[in-house]
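Take a look at the protein record below with the fold in mind.
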Amino acid sequence: MMHVIDASEGVFDSGRYPEVQSLCVRASHDNARPIGIGPVPEYQATVMNLARVIMPRSRAPLDLSMIDEDPRHITAWGRRPAHWALRQPARIDLSLVLLEGLRFNNAQSINQARSLGMFRHIAFVDAHDAQSWIQAGLPAARVTVNDPASYTTVTSETSRHSRRTVLEVGDDEIVIMPIAAPWCSLDSQRLAFLLGMLRVNGYRATALVPSNAWRLAGARQFCRRGGLGARLIVIDGPMTPWLSACDVAFVDAARPRQQLASVIPRGAIRVLVAQAQASGVPVAIAPGSLLDETKSPAGANVTEELRPLLNILEQKTCAPTFAVAENCS
């Protein structure tokens, strides 16, 4: 079986989730080396264990001697790999896994649904995602919804102590892993503000943030000038290998700009949530988030949005400690 993933990080609303797709492939086949749709830096290709990187518009036939997997079955992970797979010579079987749902049922969405309907098997990890594509015209008979836990795997055997030593965090410090898809959609400035609110509540909390997070410069400025002791640790590379160092994961409320997105990465977020839970990290889901089934309005009350996170922290055995201000890392 040949796996093709979208290996390049995209802008907001691009539908590119390379880390999530890489996790899913490793969970499906331990020794699989997927083909990555580029462009992607060489170091990223090494980290993701890619067999080959190809450009999205390439029509050249694959050099099968460079690929270890069986080329008679292609599984495409995402929209760009799907369109690439459909341009290849006839295969025995074509499968597709989509980690996002459609927000707008417009002409473009209908055309995409008709095109992707050429796949024999189409899997989702969220029922809402599947339903939105079916409403746009994807054949319901070819659609299945899988448990997101089936796409999780152990990403690292490195101990909690070793990871926290590298991050230079103390045993009494709460380390938070935010969850966002794509990672560039994470509002790091708001996350820094929420850390400050946790400090006000007596919790010495630190958050990991990806290097391509949104408003990272503003977050660092807030950390330095806010006076609340908020601290961010910037990760350059995959985020999930650091789960073993974390005490809790947090799915924040959706921000207003996400209402403009044509796709909703609910499935990708569910995979990250399942990965955190498989790693033994509890997950707090804020009201108003994309996973919120009650459709609570976002932004009305910060305390209410923080409550699921506070509930988990209150269950920790260590008592809250009030912290002095620190510089942002």
In short: The radius of gyration is 20 Å. DSSP finds ten helices and 14 strands in the chain.
